[in-house]
Amino acid sequence: MKNSRCLAIAVAITMLVVALPALSQVELRFSPADQHVAVGEGGSLSVMLDDAIDVRTIELWVRYDETVVTGQEGQPGELFSESGCPLFPFFDEDVPGAWYAGSVTMGPTCFLTGPGELYRWNFEGLANGICHVQVDSVVLYDSLAEVIEDVTLSGTKILVGVVSSVDTPPVKQLGLSLAPNPFSPRTTIRFDGWQDEGVAVEVFDLTGSRVATLWSGQLGREPGAVQWDGTDRWGRAVSGGTYLFLIHGQGDRQATRKGILLK
Question: Whole-angstrom Cα distance, residue 205 to residue 186?
Fold first, then answer.
């Protein structure tokens, strides 16, 4: 009898484990993918969440070919706008061909639940060609304002006007992202570009003064990463505020990102 009871418990536990869903990364997607617009025609790209998970915040760092497409504005998607929560949306396109954007629900008990649209970027076709939309970084925060691990968002293409039937690969740009952002006391800066290209990754304050050189050398096959702990070149702690992170390589190749150090 004892053995039978143990066997029944073991079977029940096994069934419970099998019934649990497997943990996997959250895969966001652009919609519509690989869309086609005419020169002078407007369009939009939505960032879609297909999973039933709770989200408080989304942050996006995206690059595109500004010679083919001109960006217009970004706005929270329907999941945010229909959540009934007060929102803090932001959209920054200070760097040509790149934008940083997102939305935050305000209030300790206010968040949204997927699936649905998280963000929408509006654009207009500028010239005949293929605009490759590439994602430097995407970050989601859950209902407790904790970073959701393993979130991905693959790039897509916008075809404008008359394009060649042969899709030539995009020229690889210098990439730079940091997470978490805002951060305290440290953040991780990830960067990539041409293999064997000599680059330097630096941080500046808003007066344009260099605070520290975080990394310099030749890029490898895989993206690089370095941490900044909020100290200057002499190891002294800097004050809280907004800082500019810059990667520069051959010629005028460079990319910048804003970061906020909390104190």
Answer: 16
Q: How far apart are CA 160 and CA 39, in angstroms?
A: 6
Domains 27-160 and 175-261 share a fold: yes
Residue 236, C-beta contacts closer than 8 angstroms, at least 6 positions apart:
none
Beta strand 198-204 pairing with 69-76: unpaired
Cα 108 to chain centroid distance, Å, stands at: 24
Ranges of each domain in the chain:
27-160, 175-261
| pLDDT attached to residue 173 | 75
**pLDDT tens, 105-119?**
988 889 999 999 999
Rounded Cα–Cα distance for residues 103 and 140 (Å): 10
Band (pLDDT 50/70/90 cuts) for residue 135 is confident
CA 168 to chain centre: 25
* Type of residue at 258: K
Other CB atoms within 10 Å distance of the CB of residue 38: 12
Alpha helices in the chain (DSSP H): 2-19, 78-81
CATH of 175-261, one of 3.20.20.80, 3.30.450.40, 2.60.40.4070, 3.90.1150.10: 2.60.40.4070
206-238 burial, b if ≥16 CB within 10 A, otherwise e? eeeeebbebbeeebeeeebeeebebeeeeeeeb
More confident residue, 22 or 138: 138
Q: In this structure, what DSSP letter does residue 195 have?
A: T
The CATH class given to the 27-160 domain equals mainly beta
